[in-house]
User: Which sequence fits this backbone?
């Protein structure tokens, strides 16, 4: 299993929520436990990067999309890094 840092997880949540997802569906897609997902969602909702739409689905806000755009521009962090197995 590939280890991810918090930035990778946040970016993945925001990307998958662009079209609107239910909490459980998003949790399974991202591969987090209920407690982990709750912690991330609480923070992202508080910061205004995610919101609930009229169907009670989580959706990435305009601010969240701007955050993703800025992350992809940052040369210090390879946000779209390719995951590969370590060489033995």
Assistant:
């Amino acid at each position: 299993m590939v280890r991810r840092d918090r930035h990778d997880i946040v970016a993945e949540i925001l990307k998958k929520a662009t079209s609107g997802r239910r909490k459980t569906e998003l949790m399974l897609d991202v591969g987090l436990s209920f407690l982990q997902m709750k912690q991330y969602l609480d923070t992202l909702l508080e910061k205004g990067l995610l919101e609930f739409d009229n169907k009670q689905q989580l959706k990435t806000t305009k601010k969240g999309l701007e955050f993703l755009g800025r992350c992809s521009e940052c040369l210090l962090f390879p946000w779209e890094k390719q995951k590969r197995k370590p060489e033995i």
